[in-house]
Amino acid sequence: MASHVPTPSLPIFIFLLALAAAITSPVDAAGNFTEDVIITSGDGRGKILNDGELITLSLDKISGSAFQSRKAYLYCQIDTQIKLPAGNSAGTITSYYLSSQGATHYEIGFMFVGNLAGDQFVVSTNVVTQGIRNREMRFHLWFDPTKDFHTYSILWNPTHIVFYVDVTPIREFRKTEGVPYPESQAMRLYANLSNSDDWAAGGRPVTTDWTQSPFTASFRSFAGVDFFGDFSFVTKPWMEEALDGNGLKKMQWAQKNFMVYDYCSDVKGHPQQRLPAECTAR
After folding, report:
1. What is the CB neighbour count within 10 angstroms for residue 43?
2. Which residues belong to any copy of the GH16 domain (predicted)?
């Protein structure tokens, strides 16, 4: 009698097939904004420059601007260098995220909160599962993100999600039994620069100083890994199922010194004052 070999679940099965193809025929290349994204709003305030190597998004009192990837991807790593708006940018939001569509969509992303002059910048990270947005963690950045470009990365594979700032992991979201995990909905990459006076200054209501406008966020060195070959391949540690010891130490350093909000410590911020299941599994 032939032995029975269990069949892996569909998302894992697809991932393994694509992984085999990637290992046998890798292609190394940098992305090009002209080929990979489209400007979706802004009436000219979003610009692709330098033969596709740079995008600038601008915001003035009339409108912000945005772009999105041309294709959607199931599991990827995205690396982009971003320089945030300079000056008194309180009231502005720069967002950079992966998202599917619909009421039960999934989302993985960074949101950079504009600040009052002299304040530390706050970056919010969130994992939205089935349309529920209560998994936020916020950090102070340990540098001035308006002075130069810094690399912000999202790693999303079948077992975990990691947020990186300049290759330092700041947050990991692991697949946990009983917790919805993004594995069945392909996502596009989105970025936008917008206005949000009501809370876009570290949680303090502000009035945007429009004399500082136009505010401008810049994006460059766009690169990604996609196991279906639709994205530009770069050499990355895709096969990791979890952070190694060195990665965990770096993440612990970032969370100890720069984390300013953790949804797993905010009991009152959840329905029936019950923390999500993954909080006890950390």
Report:
1. 9
2. 27-219
